[in-house]
Amino acid sequence: MSTNLTRRRFLNATSLAAGTAALATPALAQGGTELKMLTCWPKNFPGLGTSAERFAQRVAAASEGKLRIKVFGAGEVVAPFEVLDAVAAGAGDLTHDTPYYWFGKDPAFVYFAVVPFGLTADEHFTWLKFGGGQALWDELGAAHGVKPLANLNTGAQMGGWFKEPINSAADLQGLRIRYPGLGGQMLARLGATPVNIPGGELFTALQSGTIDGLEWIAPWNDLAFGFHRAAKHYYYPGFHEMGHTISSHVNADVWAGLSDSEQAIMQSAADAEYVTSLAEYNARNLDALNTLVNKHDVELHEWPSEIVAEMQRIAPEVLAESAARSEMATKVHQSWTAFRDAQRQWGEIGDYANARLKQD
Question: What is the fold, at CATH topology level, of the domain defined by 3-153+244-282?
Fold first, then answer.
């Protein structure tokens, strides 16, 4: 542990609210250092919250307790959409968030979460590790005072919940739908009004009629939030999110103050959790979907082909417009697009899923 790190003191949430500026200051615990993780989800929420805790446990085990992470749920320190600013300011040491929440800071962030009709979870990890994606993410993060890590992927998501069936694009006109990221911008082209609401507030918003529909994640998480009690029409596929990456953005000063071995522990724990979380989502989602359909009478629908075709037409336009909004977004877009196109070539040869489905 560096001398500089041991001299820092921890900024609490009150100082952030008061506007006090200071260096990031991890708490010094008995015989080690404790980092404060600010998450965007309810504490211990299945998948997102439990993965954050498991990541913390990995770090503690690998460091023999010398480096520990204390996980705080959404709203315990700051509101969900404030965690990145809080960590950059030093009121926390790292986040557990999704990069596309920070689209307003720079559109480049969205590429490190998920892009409509984009990369699968495996492909995204490959882009980060072997396609230049992580270097670009590090460059983007440095401009905002953080070091980014990918440490969870939900896999393919669902298309969303609606109170009334969606039979054509016309049925989307005028609907208020919780649909963040570029997927929401695409639906806006069809007349819907996308809104962004933290996960913990979604059920109330849907039940009260504040929104007419929503997209959250997939059956495992959607069942846990009880959306089936407010809407019965559940759509697939989630063309807007084929593999959604969740991240930790570590305060840049905190990261620089860690030793090489501690940085390696954090990176290895994040990598392991990315793979484990994806496996867990794949395992849990089908059971949860069966519960929703067979126990709670949810009506499962495939998106009308008309809407999917419109989304495929609109996606390149939305991506191009987003990429043009900043120099960094343009740079990331070029890397991401080149990698996607290359992966398509390999996928046509190496993906045996369709052949497997043809077997008796």
Answer: D-Maltodextrin-Binding Protein; domain 2 (3.40.190)
Q: What is the largest CA-CA distance in the chain?
A: 65
- Average pLDDT across each block of 10 residues of the chain; the chain has 360 residues. List them in order: 34 38 54 94 95 98 97 97 98 97 97 95 97 98 98 96 96 95 93 93 97 97 97 95 96 98 98 98 96 98 95 95 97 97 84 58
Q: Which amino acid is at 46?
A: P
DSSP 228: G
Lookup: tokens for 180: 């963040």
Q: In angstroms, what CA-CA distances link 46 with 59, 66, 275, 344?
A: 20, 27, 16, 32
33: part of which helix (H) or strand (E)?
Answer: strand 32-39
DSSP string, 83-123: HHHHHHHTS-SEEEB-GGGGTTT-GGGGGGT--TT---HHH
CA angle 325, 329, 333 (to 5 degrees): 120
